[in-house]
Structures are given as structure tokens and as C-alpha cells.
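Hello again, I could really use a second opinion on something today. I've been puzzling over a protein and I'd love to understand its fold better. I'm sending you its amino acid sequence along with the C-alpha cells. It would help a lot if you went through both lines with me. I've dropped the whole record in just underneath, so have a look.
***
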Amino acid sequence: MADVFNWQSSFVLYAIINTISLVGLLLFLPDIPIPNKKETGTNGTILKKKVLWMNLLLACFMIAAMYATYGYMADYLSNVSKMNGKQISILLFIFGITGVLGNQLAGKFLSKSIYTTTLFFIPALAVVHILLYTSGTQFLPIAVMVGVWGLIHTGGFIISNINVTSSAPENPEFINSIFTSCGNIAVTLGTTIGGFWISHFGVHQIIWSSILCLAISLLILILKKKIC
């Protein structure tokens, strides 16, 4: 929209989509009664869990790794891959479509093993980033890799969420609110690291900021396995 018309038009489209979503929720989302349940733990007790803090730290660096590069995806494709606005828009659309499949696959594997799925996700996303770096200047390879990137990348949200929420299944509302805050912090951290990397090393090198965060995530995951 910004490339065809102007940047204001993209905000107008965003407002229209959100309005349609709101109407859809009002019309089709059923009332869900709150079940009567026996509280098995207080918020204070939950916050004392070591595994919760390890999983929050893990989720923070995983999401930061995702956004360190993704936050500047359009800039990367424009300056490194030399794509125009229309080409970038198409690739962003492909990224989103493959991301839907990625969510489904992540959910399927998480139902079998949370730890194994997380252990696979971290190096898989690292490999994708390295391939993005090596194929960045070639149009067709980078186009294919963006699709693969969406497939792997998007699963990171549900993997992070399940890691955190599994820490305190006795109070899902409270733990989900904590995860939301953790996610906001992680996005801020990731985009800040990515921006710092660009300003010091250039946009082509931004991939390595994500690799660094993923390496830290892997260390946290291994440490959590040993001490929790």
C-alpha cells in the first residue's frame, strides 16, 4: 500500500482490517463462562518457581533473536537484496503464509515434547539466518529462504508461550499475563540489538545479532535442563 499509494494508506488499511476483526469478534466470539476452580497456588508462590524464571529468560532471548533481524526485514531486502517495494510486499506475504503452517507444525511437535521441540527450533532458526546471510544478494535463493524463514520463525511464538505457561499450569491467566509482558520486553530488546548492530556493522551483518541471541537461548535451555 505504501509503495503503490503512500505511507498513510497503509495505516488506513490497517485500521480497516482491525475494524473488521472487531466486528467479527463481536458477532462470532461466544461468551465463555469462567469455571469454578480451586486455587492451587498464589501468584507469590508461582513467582518463586525457578523454572518459571528460566523459561521467561529463555523466551525473552528466543523472541529477541527473532525480532533482531525480522524487525529490519524490509530494510535488509531493500538494501542487501536490492528489491523494490512490490517485491518486498510479496515476500512478506509469503513469509506470513508459511508462518501459518509453521504454527501448526510447532503445535504438533510441542504436544509430543516441549524440550525437544525447543531444542530443534533454536539451531534450525540459526541455520535459516545463516542461509539468509549467504544468499542475501541473490534474488531467487533469498526469496525461497524467506518462505523457509517464515515456516521456522513463526513457531517461536507458540514454543516460547508453551515453555512459560507450562511452568505454572495452576494459574494460566496470571502466567499468560507475565508472558505477554516478557514478549513485549523481548521485542524491544531484539529490535534494539538489531538497530545497534546495523549502526555499527551494517544491515547485511544484522543476521549475527540474531545468532548471538539464539546462542544465549541454547545455553539457557541446556542450563535449565540441568538445574530445574
Observations:
- The CA atoms of residues 55 and 137 lie 36 Å apart.
- The domain at 45-227 is CATH 1.20.1250.20 (Growth Hormone; Chain: A;).
- DSSP finds ten helices and no strands in the chain.
